[in-house]
Amino acid sequence: MSGHSKWANIKHKKEKSDAKKGKIFTKLGREITVIVKAGGPDPESNSKLRDVIAKAKANNMPNDNIDRCIKKASGELGSDNYEEITYEGYGPNGVAVIVETLTDNRNRTAGDLRHYFDKFGGNLGQNGCVSFMFDKKGVLIIDNSEGDLDEDTVMMDALDSGAEDFSANEDCFEIQTDPNAFGDVLAALEGKGYAFASAEVEMIPQTTVTLTDEKDLLFMNKLIDMLEDNDDVQNVWHNWEE
Q1: 65 in the same domain as 54
Q2: Taking residues 112-138, what's their average pLDDT?
Q3: Taking the CB of residue 95, how many other CB atoms lie within 10 A of it?
Q4: pTM (two decimals)
Q5: 28: how many CB neighbours lie within 10 A of its CB?
């Protein structure tokens, strides 16, 4: 997926998120809760917590909200129990889709997701049916729409911080990392003064699929919207070239 397309997708996703910030913050809060319960409330020793805090900040979640979620999860009030379940399937015309969820009722979540896939021309598959088509990578996006950042400087800072790959595009810089090094690279670049339009560990498709049929395009958009609007769904990854 090209960087320009990536930047366009981020802006589109943020516009949608702005319209329903409460839901986005609720999902991030749930993710923080699970990670704190599993690894503790200190981001210095819990790298997954450090990573999700970066994701929350990139989504403009206030620090007070983040701190409240961490305290709730580590105290007596943190009584919610969620399990992480990943679903895989196919959208219209064979588009590969991965759906990451946090749920307190796996039967409800599986039923909802199966309904969405069936309704919009796809189907849920077995675990592993599409994940081999994706690579897990840490992805950091730096907004350069104003053109005030020097490409060579950002590239050297990224590589010196441990990044695996760097690409410059019309409006942004994209930095990819090994998923296990994501937190360290993020912290190093933050220390150099960089801010991020997007920062999270993603599933990157090895190849992409283009849809041309109007019905397929309509159904794929509706499928993604339904999935992202579900309270149990945390992330939706796919190999459709939007």
Answers
A1: yes
A2: 96
A3: 25
A4: 0.83
A5: 21
Strands of the 198-205 sheet, one edge to the other: 165-168, 172-177, 134-143, 198-205
> What range defines the domain where residue 213 resides?
83-132+208-238
Task: Give CA 58 to chain center in angstroms.
Answer: 11
pLDDT: which is higher, 152 or 6: 152
CA dist 77 and 51 (Å) reads: 23
Q: How far apart are CA 11 and CA 58, in angstroms?
A: 12
The neighbour count for residue 194, using CB atoms within 10 Å, is 19
φ/ψ of residue 177, rounded to 5:
-135, 160
Using an 8 Å Cβ cutoff, are 125 and 94 in contact?
Answer: no
Q: What's 211's DSSP letter?
A: -
| 126 and 214 fall within a common domain | yes
Closest CA to 173 of 1, 59, 53, 7: 7
Question: What tens digit of pLDDT does each residue of 141-169 get?
Answer: 999 988 899 999 999 999 999 999 999 98
88 beta partners: 98
